[in-house]
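look at this fold:
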Amino acid sequence: MSRLTVIVPCYNVESYLDWSLGSLEGQTLSDIDIVCVNDGSTDGTLEALEAWAARDPRVRVVSKPNGGLSSARNAGIRATATDYVCFLDADDRFHESACENIVRLLDETGADVLTFGATCYPPEAGYPWLEGALSPRDALYEGFSPDILFKEASRPFAWRTACRTEFLLEKGIWFEEGLRFGEDQAFHFAVYPRAERTALSSLKLYDYRVAREGSLMSAVSDDFGAKMLEHVKILDVILRDWSAADLLSRYEEQMVAFCMDFALYDAIKLDEAPYRAVAERLRSLMGGYWSLQEVERMALPAATRRMVLDGCYRMDLTPIGRKRLVLSYYAQQNGRRALLRRLVSGKE
């Protein structure tokens, strides 16, 4: 009997399916279930999936109206009948021993949640932040520690996280279907605090198709401002969930710092109007949980403190002040030598 289900959400990915599903066809652990969710594709995706199902009895096709990535993943979870579940994006691929190692690690550790490493595809498209984020260390956490979220290389990207299926169902954990993107962040902020045991593995089990990174202070457009507004929506989902689970009051300083890093740090580089749009939306959201006086009493790192107080709650920074804050925040997070290297390389 299969122990692991691989959920493959599919929307207009006809040209990638032989690559992604081919990586499942050749797994060293052959006894797996493969649930491909056709999310209302308008190209030849459904026909390609049906052809795969005809040649490989492990492939099951679930077809539904278009609802987005979260909706497709949720449909896959509902169709899962195995002990464990994991995810494969249709334009990526698993390494040939991925499924075998996922089952082995979950069995050996008894973890509810397992997060493993990944490699960039093509390799030259990788860049330092991404390669670091995709390289967790070997670790086992009993219960929840905020270090899992805020210090470990544990997020984002739900496709490198496998879970006990019963754990997800018992805890009522689903992907947030109201988000345009960033559902992986919300998912990780939901699963890690609720897991009785979390395992991290340094094994690289996945190839992630990726584009190159832009520079730290590269020109950004109004579209980027819209993306940061979406980040505020993601924070709204996370904060509501943590508040309901009585987590927010226990880790408020870490969460305030995360709000700055996730939404305001990039927004503060924008022109005045889009910056203020993001800052005002973020202030409105955070103000529902922490007053200005409460934030002032928090023990935050200096640049983070200035960002939340002056850049968000008061919004009284000049354009020059915002540029200086970006640099001081980068130095705080990465070290002064790293900042100097970027300045010398002309990336600022």
Residues 143 and 196 are 5 Å apart (CA to CA).
